[in-house]
Amino acid sequence: MNRSLLLKTIFLTILFHLINGNEKKCSGKDAVSIEENCVIIEKSKLIITGEYKDVESVKEKLATIRVIEAGVEVVGTSYEVFDFLSQVEEIKNPNGPALTFKNNKNLKSISMENLKLLTGKEEDVLFDNDNFPIEVYQNSNALHEMLHLEAAARASHGNKKCSVEFIRIVEPEASGSGWLLYTLIATCVLLTVFVGFQSFYLVKEKKKKKKMSKMSKRKKKSKERSRRSGREDLK
After folding, report:
1. Looking at residue 117, which CATH number applies to its domain?
2. May I ask which residue range the UniProt record assigns to the signal sequence (predicted)?
3. Average pLDDT value for residue range 202-230
4. What residues form DSSP beta bridges with 73?
5. Is 9 within the bounds of a domain?
6. For FRET with 146, which of 42, 135, 137, 221 sits at 20 to 30 Å CA-CA?
7. Sheet architecture: strand order including 90-92
8. Could you give the number of structural domains in the chain?
9. Who has greater pLDDT, 1 or 133?
10. How would residue 121 be classed by pLDDT, with cut points 50, 70 and 90?
11. Which domain holds residue 143?
12. 187 in a domain, yes or no?
């Protein structure tokens, strides 16, 4: 039995390495020029810029990507929804921000629901004269998406608390909206506290129900004993 288990373990290990080794790696470039069936983007940034004539075909090519090792740059688009990388699980960049959004005047949503890890050299996300940070304070869905990016960055760095270090917002001086960043962090902290309180309450309720269940069982046993002793007395 032990030998059989050992053989299965060895087989699965070899199979894992074979599958992992066969993952297609591609160098980063403009999304329209990326090769098909890429799983890992390495060496240089993946760039999404301007307007694509056939947006769906570009999204189709990017749908196989799971890991990006040299960052992503989204520049000068007019898209309201950024959903080009919805399947990506990890984005990192040892030489700069993992995610850069610049001059996207209409951006209202960043859909990256599968993203688990996000890490850059200094800040993890850079918004340079971009619309999305403003949208965060007008739209609850945008706020949720921003907090998801923060959670992915926090998981990468092993931080337990929200931090302003994950993001940098560059904006025209005349806009005077630098306070937005701190409002975001405050919201993140409040949500963390709320989730913590909710978890504590649920655990407490679970213990209470368990205790009540035990007491109920004891009462039933006590009644059964009383009935038995009553029957014995009658005999």
Report:
1. 3.80.20.20
2. 1-21
3. 65
4. 47, 100
5. no
6. 42
7. 25-27, 40-42, 67-68, 90-92, 117-119
8. 1
9. 133
10. very high
11. 18-177
12. no
